[in-house]
Amino acid sequence: MININKRRFDVIREDLHRAYGHEYSAAEINRKTDEVIAKHSQSANLEEFVPVMVERELKEHFGDHRIHVRFVAGSQVALAQAAVALTKKHAGEALVVDAAATHPEISEEGHMAHVLHERGMLEPGKRYLDEVRTVAMPDYIVYLGRHLERDEAGKDVKIWDIENADDLEATRELADDLEARVLYMLNRLGIDPVREGAAVEA
User: Which of 41, 67, 86, 84 is nearest to 155 (CA)?
Assistant: First the structure.
């Protein structure tokens, strides 16, 4: 098998784990993926079409995928952290959620980080801004502010009119507003918020 197909199979496998990992174990996904790759690789006349056929059959087998939401906050790392943390808190594993930030390696200790600590939602050492793989186009891009440059690709784009907060009390109000928007988004997506205290994998 040519190398380009191996890389495409790796991408398909990664996407399957992201989309269906809440319903199927890693072993189940890998086993079915290997089975379908082997079947189509043995019978194909043109190798370049094998990944397309493999992906189609696997998606038909596993069914509907988890909706993928990506928050965009520019250089406001703490705001992106808050959006991701709030969504994970209320959606659990029902969504794939990540964020794009200009400098995700920066750890902000500003007002928003303080508010998240107050609410037990920002644990030391826990990574909330995962590396975003550019080929994984999300279902929804949510821009956290009208002023942000709209340079992210998504199947649907939402813009939340988020204002900057200059002091701690204003940041608490901003966090409340952000949480209300997250809950509204989940309602529109038909996702019931997880019960308070239910285990959520970050």
Answer: 67
Question: How much is the pTM?
Answer: 0.66
Q: Name the burial class of residue 127, with classes exposed (0-12), middle (13-18) and buried (19+) by CB atoms within 10 angstroms of its CB.
A: exposed
The verdict on 152 and 71 lying in the same domain is: yes
Distance CA 142, CA 170 (A): 22
Rounded to whole angstroms, how far apart are CA atoms 146 and 120? Answer: 29
Rounded to the nearest angstrom, the gap between the alpha carbon of residue 190 and the centroid of all alpha carbons in its chain is 17
Residue 197 inside a domain? The answer is no
Query: Does some domain include residue 31?
Result: yes
> Tokens in use for 89?
């808190």
CATH number at residue 124: 3.40.50.2300
Average pLDDT per 10 consecutive residues for the chain, totaling 202 residues: 74 87 87 92 81 89 85 85 92 87 57 84 55 65 87 82 87 94 93 70 44
